[in-house]
Amino acid sequence: MKRSLLRRIFLSLIVVGAVVAIGSCTLSGPSGIDIANISSTYTLAHVYITNHSSASWGSDWLSPDVIVPGGSASFDLSPGFYDVSAIDTTPYTVYAYSVQVRSGKTVTLFFNGTTLN
Length: 117
What we know:
There is one protein chain. The chain has a domain at 32-111: Carboxypeptidase-like, regulatory domain (Immunoglobulin-like), CATH 2.60.40. The radius of gyration is 23 Å and the shape is globular. The protein has one helix and six strands; from the N terminus they run αββββββ. It is of the alpha+beta class. The longest helix has 23 residues, at 2-24.
């Protein structure tokens, strides 16, 4: 009887410990920004992504590729705040400022031909 009770208590503690351990785990995958071209006519030719505190746009992250209407592209980034510039082939430029990328999360920005948000 005593042994049975101790065994139940022991198994209960194992189960509680497992639940606590699983509950405290965080699943994390890649962090970054996806850009989806939802316009029906405009092709994105250039994408610039820079840390929000940077004074320069730096290099084209998309070249030599393009994002055709209905297409998308993914860019892996560390968590932080970023400014994004996208230029279509006309060339029309759109911006998204202070885009927050969180650990293990991907932010999707939509280009509709006139805005990037």
